[in-house]
Every structure is written in C-alpha cells, then in structure tokens.
Amino acid sequence: MTALALAAPPPPRSPWQLLYGALLARRRRRAAATAERLPVPVVSLGNLHWGGGGKTPFTAAVAADLQARGLAVAIVSRGYRRASRGPLVVSLGGGPRIPWSAAGDEPFLLAELLPGVAVAVGEQRVAAARLLLRELPQTPDLFLLDDGFSHVALARDIELLLFPAADPFAGGRLAPAGRLREPLGAARHADAVVLTGCPASEMPTAGAHLARALARHGFSGPGFASSTASGPPRAGASGLAGAGSSSGGDLHGILPAGTRVVAFAGIARPEGFFRDAERQGVEIAARLAFPDHHAYPDESIARIEGAFRRHRAGALLTTAKDALKLRGRLSPAPSVLPIVARPEPAFWEWFDERLAQARR
C-alpha cells in the first residue's frame, strides 16, 4: 500500500455536498452536547462507508483480546435490518437467545463467535446498553459500540474509525453521489484510524500513510493497519471461526483443496470472499453475489441449489454471516470460509495505553 494509493481526495466543492456535510456536522454537535455516559468505558468502532468496512471481524478481534485478559466485555449494536424494534438482549454471554432475524445477522454472529460476551441491539444504543446493565448479574468492565461512529448520543472514551483497504475513501463524496455517509472531515473526531483488510506485507507503513492522507481533512491522530486472514474452508457445520484464530469449534472437517465449489455471499464486498476462497485452494465453478445482509428468500435458495446441480460441484461455500441464515435450508449444507482480523502490534500498544487511561 503506497502513499500514492492512499492519497485522499480533496474536500468536495459541490454546493450539495457542502450543505449535506454541514447538516451532518450540526447533527453531530447537537447529539454530542447531550450524550449520555455509561458507568464504564465505551470503545466505539465504526466507519464512514455504507457497509463493508471490516467492522465485524475487527470488533470480534478486539473483544476476544480483551476477554483473554480477563475483562468482562459487552457489545451494543444497532442490529441493521433486523425484524424487530427497540432494545433487545441477544446474549448474556451464553450464546444467542433470540433468532438471527430479530438480532440482526452481525450481532447474532458476534454472540456466537464470542462465548462469555454479552450482546444487545437497539436503534438507541444507550437503551440497549442500559438494558444489559439491568440484566447482567455483574457490571461489565467496558462496552464495545459496534458501528458507533455516527451514533454520538452515547458518549465514548475511545473512538476508532475503520477504512477498508479495498476502497478506503469511497470516492470522497457523500450519498447519493458517493459512498460516504459522513464527510472525510468527520475523521477529526476519531482518536485513531485503522486500515482494515490490509495485505500483511504492507502493514508496517499502511497505517501511517492512511493517517497522513486524512490529515488534509483535519485528522490528527495515529493510523494503524489490520490484515484479514482466512482459514481452510470448513465443511458441514456452523462455519464459525474462533475470533482469535483462523479455526474454530463445532467444525466437522476441512474441505479438501481442489474441491469444486459454488461460492456465494451476501456481503458488501463479495470479491474479497471469492479471492480468499481461491487462495485456500478450492476450485470455484460459479460465483453468486447477493446484496449485503441478504435474507435468502426461497428464490435465492433455488438459485444456489440450481447452480450446485448445474455445475456438478462438490460443495457449497459461503461466509459465516451468510451460513447462519441458511441452517437446515440448503442441501448440501454450505461449507464456510473462516475469517479473522489481525491488527498490527502497534495498534495493541496504543489501544492498551488508551484503555488504561479510560479505565482510570
């Protein structure tokens, strides 16, 4: 990742973009002025993009690291596209206790990936967090605010802003002309920025390049990088990778290299999934890309099974987020490509210091 590749576009000059950006900034200031504070530190992880920022693997990695150090962690999330309203407890640490459709696919996945971590969802994250505080037998040591950058009604102690290496600046323009939900100038509110999905060979310098590229938009903090590692496809199981490694529990076996597969995914950037699958040695007979957070109605099931028969494949292959929606609905049961985020050591050094300050 060269400095040239991470050259941020200049601030927009379009009157519409400037007006929209000013309205978003005003909304942020008003919400921040009355933000509620929890009795324990809050770490926010978010991005400026509409989807595909690598938040779920990164959140899982941070939560698993904190849990390994003996800290009680709770996660609050919106639960994007869930079929429910209001604050709901997804898990008190013993795995999901409501269906994925009510929790949202990503919070449900985090609840399965992270035994011992409490998870709640709610349009108002404050209400979700306070629901957990009432229902948990003990107050957690900290909260992780998943996809929390734009939700400033809940005060946070550490603000992490994630940028996907595949499309770090989303064209530099706000929707509908671009793929940003807040201007790049909003990065000035972050304590640190992280380039997710970064090639491991480029990690030593990529984070610093990202921070320098955002400096022209007012950001003044440090930048870090995080790689994304895939493990061998796992056959016929939940397909959930352990958050701290590329292999996990409840797995029946590794899909042999050279297996002919129909690969499908309903995520923001399916091309990365297909690329990682090929690196694991499978032969992709067909690629099926569905919209992000796809619910897989019956017609999608028929399309997948039809491709499997038509291409005479040996297996179906998908992501963990997609697999949880398809349990008992596909024949054969899909294998899963496990994914784990691996932030660089410099990030952990910085994060540990900031977290110790927040806990004091």
What structural class is derived from the secondary structure elements? alpha/beta
User: What's the CATH class of the largest domain, please?
Assistant: Alpha Beta
What's the mean pLDDT score? 89
What's the total helix number? 10
Low-confidence stretches: 237-251
Count of discrete domains: 2
Our Rg estimate from Cα atoms comes to 20 Å
Strand order of the largest sheet: 3-4-2-5-1-6-7-8-13
| CATH architecture identity of the largest domain | 3-Layer(aba) Sandwich
Describe this structure in words.
The two termini are 37 Å apart. The longest helix is centred in the N-terminal third of the chain and has 19 residues, at 15-33. The protein is an alpha/beta fold and 360 residues long. Strands 3-4-2-5-1-6-7-8-13 form a nine-stranded mixed sheet, sandwiched between helices. The protein has a four-stranded parallel sheet with strand order 10-9-11-12, sandwiched between helices. It folds into two domains: 15-71 and 141-229 and 342-359, 3-Layer(aba) Sandwich (Rossmann fold); 232-337. The chain contains ten helices and 13 strands. It is 31% helix and 19% strand. Mean pLDDT is 89; it is low at 237-251. The protein has helices at 15-33, 55-68, 100-103, 105-113, 125-135, 203-215, 270-279, 298-310, 320-323, 345-359; strands at 42-47, 73-77, 88-91, 118-121, 142-146, 158-164, 192-196, 223-230, 260-265, 283-289, 315-318, 335-336, 339-343. Helix 7 links the parallel strand 9 and strand 10 (283-289).
